[in-house]
Amino acid sequence: MPDRLSDHLRDRAAAIRLAVFDVDGVLTDGRLWYSEDGRELKAFHVHDGLGLKRLLANGIEVAIITARMSHLVTERMAELGVAHVYQGQKDKRACLHLLCEALQLPLQQVCYTGDDLPDLRAMLATGLPIAPANAHPWVAERAHWQTRRNGGEGAAREVCDLLLHARGLADAELAHWL
Predict the structure, then answer these.
(1) Cβ within 8 Å of residue 4, ≥6 positions away
(2) 137 and 130 in contact (C-beta within 8 Å)?
(3) What gap in Å lies between CA 58 and CA 83, rounded to an integer?
(4) 20 to 30 A Cα–Cα from 160, which one of 48, 91, 109, 113?
(5) pLDDT of 20 over the 90 cut
(6) Helix locations, the chain, DSSP H
């Protein structure tokens, strides 16, 4: 990863204190699965989950802002220790502003990872808008950085690793596991 980071991107990423993620298309592959009895199913990538936990362990807040409501999101985020979970948000930018006020963080210290048009206004309000590899083209062309992996396939982990690397924490993070 270090070889593909410009100084400008590294500086922006190093300033991030809050990482915000959309769910469908970012933490999942974007497909909606329903069981025969109408229950919703979602698949989350385990690499993304560990990445979110490692951000929290290294002092970077994590938040979820999604337009849909899902008990599966509630359960998964609780399992990971993510306290800031906002579902049913039709205006993601307004939600983001309220969250930043509550945390007393300027938007320049926030990154937002989103994949589709409902994410754009919130993404563009932050210091570091990010899109997964399979984001809608209109979103991807406005992101400051795009992951190599698709949403639901480790894209969020790439974001987490970027933030840890930019803050000079990658070596210590690896050493934690050796």
Answers:
(1) none
(2) no
(3) 15
(4) 91
(5) yes
(6) 7-14, 46-57, 71-80, 92-103, 120-124, 137-140, 155-166, 170-177
Under a CB-based contact definition with an 8 Å cutoff, are residues 141 and 135 in contact? no
Q: What's the CA gap between 47 and 44, in Å, rounded?
A: 9
Cβ neighbours of 133 (radius 10 Å): 16
Q: How confident is the model at residue 58 (pLDDT cuts 50, 70, 90)?
A: very high
Is residue 110 within 8 A of residue 100, CB to CB? The reply is: yes
Rounded mean pLDDT, 146-170 = 97
- Whose CA is closest to 56, among 77, 87, 28, 72? 77
The arithmetic mean of pLDDT across residues 132-140, rounded, is: 98
> How many angstroms separate the first and last alpha carbons of the chain?
20
Beta carbons within 10 angstroms of residue 64's beta carbon: 23
